[in-house]
Write a structure and sequence with these properties.
With 157 residues, the chain is α+β, with helices and mostly antiparallel strands. It has helices spanning 22-39, 95-104, 126-140, and strands spanning 7-15, 44-46, 60-62, 66-75, 79-87, 145-151.
Amino acid sequence: MAYDQTCLIIDLMAPLKFYRDHIAAFEAGAGCFRDVLGDLGLDARVGPVDGEYCAGDHSVNARGQVKVVGIAQRAMRSARLLTACIVLEKPERLRPVVDAVYGAMKLDWSPSSLGSVRGEGVQGTLDEIVHELVTGLQQRHSEWAFPQITHIDDARA
């Protein structure tokens, strides 16, 4: 995942008994983010978009056109960790990084496939958007625990 201080990284944890299958965990996690982004007014969908970097069936996109959330996971002995990177704004800052990495690996991607929450019309300060995302996830999806939420504010970067 490419990310900077304009991104929000959220780690969700659940006991392995809830999601023994990694596909079910991806579906549940992607559904969480789709629902909460929908509450913010995005036409949020689950699935890859043409030309996206790190393509996956469980990416969360806007309008079926731009990726706004990348999701990865890891299962341990008794728990599952699902990590999401949400691009809040300024995807143009991330595009050169992905370009360089994909170029070095001789992989194709489309820079226009990387979008952001703010680019999709969500209003408010970054702190307000983060608060809405986290509150929405906590209220709607109680099977996931929220032990770590990381956002690096521009002023501290």
